[in-house]
Amino acid sequence: xxxxxxxxxxxxxxxxxxxxxxxxxxxxxxxxxxxxxxxxxxxxxxxxxxxxxxxxxxxxxxxxxxxxxxxxxxxxxxxxxxxxxxxxxxxxxxxxxxxxxxxxxxxxxxxxxxxxxxxxxxxxxxxxxxxxxxxxxxxxxxxxxxxx
Length: 148
Description:
Elements: H1 2-9, H2 11-17, E1 24-27, E2 31-35, E3 45-49, H3 61-77, E4 83-86, E5 102-106, H4 128-144
Antiparallel strand pairs: 1-2, 2-3, 3-5, 4-5
């Protein structure tokens, strides 16, 4: 029941259905792209899969295969040299709408667009031993998943 309820209240599902107006850029069988009404910079666009899925790892592959070429077309159409493609999964990862979506955020200069600094991107130092151990663990899991 919760999934059906979220379909009827999801702002992105309503945009896809035309119940909420948008500045549509591209629409395919699997995706809908439009300008963000709260842009971080001029041209900030969203690419949303038409499948109502909350997190990217739950989304069927055909929707993922459609989304990035659309983001690329939007970046090319805008003539962007510098930009960010952003996708968040879960509240603590800054996801605000419970529907998978990709941001195409133009970065025209140092102050406009997505702004990150050391505190926003707290890189840590990892030892070669730590990396080697995690690499072995992760590749084993990936191999167990089979061919993608």
